[in-house]
Amino acid sequence: MAQIYENNLWGGNLSEFFSGDGSHNPELVNPYLETVTSFLAAFETPPVVCDLGCGDFNIGKELVNHSKKYIGIDIVPELIANNKKTFKANNLEFHSLDIAEDELPVADCVILRQVLQHLSNTEIKSVVEKLYDYKYVILTEHLPEEDFEPNKDIISGQGIRLKKQSGVNLLEPPFDFKVVEEKQLLSVKFRSFKGVLVTTLYKVY
């Protein structure tokens, strides 16, 4: 993933970390922020949020004030170092971790926004086992618009399953994520790409 930022494969200029249109285009970002902010604001006591794959933090920075503590996680050390310098708040911390391999921080709610779609099935299965430690999971995935065969395997990297007419569905094999409740929060179609961004809330226990 470091090469994506080093070579600006998701756009941006050579002097910045840029996590792509999915994290910057207002047509995609604004509905997402409105939806997730509404969810977090409904808690009597603000939750601790763990953002797995926080990227350049263009989205996360808008959610910090709605959490008791906000923990940004990404696998790219240079990106996390930049975030630490750029974004400051008493309830904000960043860590460079491999979410498939490393132990994850304690929190109430996990945000996974367009992260799992870049991982192999083996890595996703490793992440799923850790999700049982959290009460809520807010998952956003880029999916085909029409019916599709879920969870076709890929090699981890820049690409996603859309080119295979597939997408990640954690409730289906080989992941079989067991949840108490599933609720689709948002579905956004953007004219410049195929497929749709679907945000789903899972209540785990």
Secondary structure: elements and pairs:
Elements: H1 2-6, H2 26-41, E1 48-52, E2 69-74, H3 77-86, E3 92-96, E4 109-113, H4 121-131, E5 136-143, E6 181-188, E7 196-203
Parallel strand pairs: 1-2, 1-4, 2-3, 4-5
Antiparallel strand pairs: 5-7, 6-7
What would you say this structure looks like, in words?
By secondary structure, the protein is of the alpha/beta class. It has one domain: 3-Layer(aba) Sandwich (Rossmann fold). The chain contains 4 helices and 7 strands; from the N terminus they run H-H-E-E-H-E-E-H-E-E-E. It has helices spanning 2-6, 26-41, 77-86, 121-131, and strands spanning 48-52, 69-74, 92-96, 109-113, 136-143, 181-188, 196-203. Helix 3 links the parallel strand 2 and strand 3.
Give a concise summary.
The protein is of the alpha/beta class and 205 residues long. The chain has helices at residues 2-6, 26-41, 77-86, 121-131; strands at residues 48-52, 69-74, 92-96, 109-113, 136-143, 181-188, 196-203.
